[in-house]
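Notes from hallway chat w/ T.B., transcribed later so I don't forget. T.B. wanted the structure written out for a chain they're using in a teaching module, and asked if we could keep both sequence and structure tokens in one place. Agreed to drop them here.
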Amino acid sequence: MVSIVYSERFLEHETDCGHPESPERLQAILDYLEKTSFFKRYDIEVVAPEKIDEKTLELVHLLAYIQQLKLLSSKERTLSSDNPFNKNTFEIASLACAAAFTAAKKSIEANSFSFALVRPPGHHAGKAFFQGFCYLNNIAYAVRRIQKEKQLKKALIVDFDLHHGNGTQDIFYSDDSVYYLSLHQDPSFTFPFHSGFEEENNFHIKNIPLGEGTGDRNYLELFKKAVSEAVEEFKPEIIGVSAGFDIYFADAAVGSRLEIRETKTFEEIGKIIRESAEKNNCPVFGVLEGGYYLRKLGENFSSLLTGFL
């Protein structure tokens, strides 16, 4: 049974008017799944995030940084172009981490794919910094905590968001128990600009910058090769997927210059990860990152899930 970890509280995270990272993102996904009877057609359960001890956030973030987030969230409103704060920002960001961990745990215990449908996203949040709509690093928290609780020696994170997960790389750069694989638009002309180049690679960090105009076929060829090699060589005991739907060509609001035009591509992404994982008897979970073109977000999301079924 596939599990989707979700809470309506994720809709409460407020951003500025016109901000791409809006509650409408999750609503667009949920509306599409309901309209197409997706849950009825497949064996899918929706589960709530389990509560977490705030102290466990220190597995991936510095205590001083966590205290800074709490302070900023204690104010009535703190404006920022990318990362606005409200009184519930820290609470809901923590809940997103909880959901990601719940998904990781479900994937192992139920031996099936699980997905954390969350906001705010997380892969731009580092040990001691927030940016790019992210406050706490959901997938890093889930991976680190599941490693600790299940005594897993190796984990793989596959990140296919349009933008490099500089926060995830920051957290795990010196930790060779986690392999971080990221395919993203060339940071020479895309946020975060300073991170995600091949020169940063080592044996457990692999960045694959994509040139302007990269299309569906070329993308899938690169993706399949990179995922297959990472799984076969590193032999992870769990795979976490940072799922960014902003690689879709119409997501121009956040700078997409790729030519990913086929919704089917997301299904193929799911299949590639699932097949590689199955060959190595490795559980998989996913966490929502980017994706802001609301007209296609629900369809692209359901396509990815279909690839894991």
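Follow-up for T.B.: The domain at 2-308 is CATH 3.40.800.20 (Arginase; Chain A). Might be a good example for the class.
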